[in-house]
Specification:
- This protein is an alpha+beta fold.
- The chain has one domain: 2-Layer Sandwich (Beta Polymerase, domain 2), CATH 3.30.460.
- 32% of the residues lie in helices and 26% in strands.
- It has four helices and seven strands; from the N terminus they run E-E-H-E-E-H-E-E-E-H-H.
- The chain has a five-stranded mixed beta sheet with strand order 3-4-7-6-5, with helices on both faces.
- It is globular and about 40 Å long.
């Protein structure tokens, strides 16, 4: 647990980072199936993004999902359908970037869904990050090997 984040109340809170869980891809597929059903006719693509989408990487145990709708005009309908399900908490456009956020489950693992229009820059950057990071060989973060390698390069 790393005490490096602040809640919306300004109080510090712990962030849980765990070893990679091989069930994360399956959990994403379950989320994808549920969201596809709820948003039938509105969705172009559904992507697993964030740290849990990168095999072998330690991560916060939250499954992050970008849901690209057919058009920005479909966002109000997508929001209404997810809200009507009663299973997600709506957080609005948290970062003022036209990414509409829903969460489910405050514990581990949780879910964060982001609705957006096609070609959205934040979504495209997330896909790029995921794909480049997944293809890049690396040592585990915070490992003894990484620390020793860092010291020997000084």
């Amino acid at each position: 647990m790393l005490p490096t984040d602040q809640s919306s109340t300004g109080r510090r809170r712990s962030i849980e980072v765990v070893d990679y869980d091989p069930s994360w891809p399956r959990q994403f597929e379950e989320i994808r199936a549920e969201v596809s059903s709820r948003l039938s006719g509105l969705v172009v693509e559904i992507h697993h993004i964030g740290s849990t989408a990168i095999p072998g990487l330690c991560a916060k145990p939250k499954i992050d999902v970008d849901i690209v709708l057919c058009s920005s005009l479909d966002i109000p309908e997508g929001i209404a359908r997810l809200q009507a399900s009663g299973t997600y908490t709506f957080h609005g456009d948290r970062y003022n970037d036209d990414m509409w956020v829903f969460t489910r489950g405050g514990g581990s693992p949780g879910q964060r869904l982001y609705l957006c229009a096609p070609g959205h820059q934040t979504h495209l950057h997330r896909i790029l990050f995921r794909d480049i990071f997944a293809a890049t060989p690396r040592l585990p973060l915070w490992s003894p090997e990484a620390t020793a390698s860092s010291r020997s390069n000084r």
